[in-house]
Specification:
Elements: E1 4-5, E2 16-19, E3 23-25, H1 27-37, H2 42-45, H3 47-53, H4 63-68, H5 70-75, E4 81-82, E5 84-97, E6 105-118, E7 123-134, E8 142-152
Length: 157
Amino acid sequence: MEAISARDLGLHVGKEVGVSQWLEINQPLIDAFADLTGDHQFIHVDPDRAAREGPFGTTVAHGLLTLSLLPELARTAVPRLNGVRASVNYGFDRVRFVSPVRSEARIRGRYTLKDVEARGIDAILTVWEVRVEIEGEDRPALIADWLGLRHLETATA
């Protein structure tokens, strides 16, 4: 994956910049996230009960787990930006959990650059539309507009 100059990033607005590798969402990952967040709802952590009583036929990943994996998915999809000394997660303008991610499913992220905005002489704000696809399904797991503040090495904005 070829790096992009922060100075030239604006040339990519409106374009899909990258698609990540597939990532399996397995039960140990879901369980670890449940332990970390304290969200032990049975649809996430009890495969037998989820199969009997749950609406999805099996356990599903937490929506926030899927959202938290955006940086990992981006690692194999979004080129490194040259001329950036630090990147800060700036938040989200929009997040929608469209479809459940069943345990043992594979997901990947599609990253489209929506906007680049100068923030003074030494920073830019990037807005990425991210669509997390579920292998073999028509509807995405989530759609989000992800904001990142990039502090530049020099005034390249």
